[in-house]
Amino acid sequence: MSDPTLPSFRYRLGQQPPRTDCGGLVRCASVRQFPVSQGIAGASMRLQPGCLRELHWHTNAAELGYVVSGNCRTTVLSPDGAATDTFGPGDVWYFPRGWGHSILGIGPGECHFILIFDNGAFAEEHTLSITDWLAHTSPAVISQSLGLGLEWVAKLPKGEAYFAAGPVPDDTIARAAPQAKPAPLTTHRYPLGAQQPRRAPGGGAQWTVTANEFPISTTLSAAVLELEPGAMRELHWHPHADEWQYYLEGAAEMAVYLGRAHTVTEQFETGDVGYVPMGAGHYIRNTGSGILRLLLGFNNGHYHAHDLNAWLASNPPDVLATNLGLPRTVAKTLPEETHFIAQPQRS
Question: Catalytic positions, please?
Answer without folding.
Answer: 53, 56, 58, 63, 101, 124
